[in-house]
Design a protein that fits this description.
Layout lengths: L14 H18 L3 H12 L49 H13 L7 H11 L6 H12 L17 H10 L11
């Protein structure tokens, strides 16, 4: 995480910001019932843990790129200095705990505009009756794209094709291993 922000042209995370992220993940995991490892895997997938990550399109801010969340330490939708793209908004350095916490909360607990990990997991458990480890991969697909393809193939549908397999790899520690899934 100490080298996670260069791709957006903003300062990397400080030790205090990383500690605040851990504190917030643990707090939000406890308050929502979402496993802290799952939250961390989504943080790493969505933002590589950069507290100043750009907004992924309008309305997807923060560490977990939540649906219309309110937590963000970077109002930009592109890396600073990207020609022709919005990259001159406000960047907060340091990123305060309150913003880091809001970023984690928005992604894990959801917003009034979209489901968070908690709601995606609940749907898998209660409506789809998935209580094994697949609930996390299916919830990850839903979090990323809003739905699961009718075929049940977690690589199909909108958004990022490899999202569920990337989350599975993160959760099993297979982060840098080669794989056949391509964007």
């Amino acid at each position: 995480m100490k080298a996670s922000c260069a791709q957006w042209g903003v300062p990397d995370d400080s030790d205090v910001e990383i500690a605040d992220m851990k504190k917030s993940i643990l707090y939000v995991a406890n308050s929502t019932g979402v496993d802290e490892r799952f939250i961390l895997a989504v943080v790493m997938q969505e933002s590589t843990g950069c507290v100043r990550v750009v907004n992924n399109g309008p309305g997807n801010p923060g560490l977990m790129q939540s649906h219309n969340g309110t937590g963000s330490c970077n109002d930009n939708t592109a890396a600073i200095g990207t020609p022709g793209l919005a990259g001159n908004g406000e960047v907060q350095t340091p990123c305060p705990y309150s913003e880091i916490h809001q970023q984690i909360h928005d992604g894990a607990a959801g917003t009034i505009y979209g489901a968070g990990l908690k709601q995606c997991l609940r749907q898998q458990q209660q409506q789809q009756h998935h209580t094994d480890v697949s609930q996390f991969y299916r919830a990850a697909r839903m979090y990323n794209s809003g739905s699961i393809d009718s075929s049940g193939d977690l690589g199909k549908g909108g958004a990022t094709k490899c999202y569920a397999s990337d989350i599975a790899n993160r959760l099993t520690g297979w982060v840098n291993a080669p794989h056949d899934c391509t964007l």
